[in-house]
Amino acid sequence: MPPPELPPLPPGPVSLGAARELGLRDHQWRMASLLRQTQTVRALADAATTTERARAFALALPTDCVFSHVSAAQIWGIPLPAPLEDQVALDVMRATGKGCIERGGCISHRGKERRVTTTVHGLPVTSLADTWVDLGEVVDRGLGRDDLVVAGDVVARRTPGIQPRSPVTDAVQPLADALAARVRPRHKTMLMTALSLVRAGVRSPMESRARLMFHDARFPEPEVNGPIHADDGGWLAEGDLVWREQRVVGEYQGAVHAGIAARSRDAHRSGLLGDEGWTVLELFREDLVDRARRTTTLRRFARALNLDPSTLVIT
Fold first, then answer.
1. Burial letters 118-132, b for 16+ CB under 10 A, else e
2. What is the CATH number of domain 205-311?
3. SS3 of residue 187 by DSSP
4. What is the pLDDT of residues 3-59, one digit of tens each?
5. Could you report the per-residue pLDDT of 169-195, keeping only the tens digit for each?
6. Cα 172 to Cα 70: distance, rounded to the nearest angstrom
7. What is d(CA 270, CA 250) in angstroms, rounded to the nearest whole number?
8. In what order do the strands lie in the sheet with 35-38?
9. Residue-range domain boundaries for the chain
């Protein structure tokens, strides 16, 4: 005899109580076609993303819980290093006086009363700034200073009221306030160091990492996505990393620049800048991650910037 058909169910996760209201019988709840997401929650298809997993677990968690730490960063779309980007377990937070969440697939935290919370994709999460500070608690899981700066640059760009070329102090203030509100945050020294390097207006993680490469080598700090005009005031371009005094531009070339049409536009723009006395130097991922190429790249930029090699730290 063929198995009985299921009653119409929503495409996403469904709790046992909601399924019963839709006409599902208890023996049907155990059918193989309903995939277990967590205890008392099933779905017709497995969750493929953190947001989908969180939406399923939210049906079974107390209503005063929020998603935090790595899970909040994933839901917000904050870039993380690979080991954390792939984290499946969900970080769940409640107020300090509440009981811990003891559920498979969850990492329990307390301290919700010291965080600002909001809703993203219909899910309760810690705020952008508080999520960034909480990343300091997972440094031991493979997150370093550069990763915190990359995340901080994203938060600074996405925080309401922060404009692309806002003063540095304005860009980092929400992060500074969130950090100051904590009594004894883990890895505070690293958080403070990263905070000093966060800038508004950065448009990609690799732009952040390129800027940090020059910072560590003791180069003068470039403008981030700075506007460039011709001597007569006409608009020329916007440079990823701009050393205005030396008229040097560093352009990071990611995948979006790979096609022939994009390369044509880049070459045309470089020509316009060259006509106005600017030097345009390209940067690629390998220039940042390969030691030999990094050394060559830094020396090339140093020559263009007329820097004394003895003042640089090239490793």
1. eebeebbbbbbbbbb
2. 3.40.960.10
3. coil
4. 467 777 778 899 888 888 888 888 888 888 888 999 999 998 899 999 999 999 999
5. 677 899 999 999 998 899 999 999 999
6. 20
7. 11
8. 14-15, 41-43, 35-38
9. 1-46, 61-197, 205-311
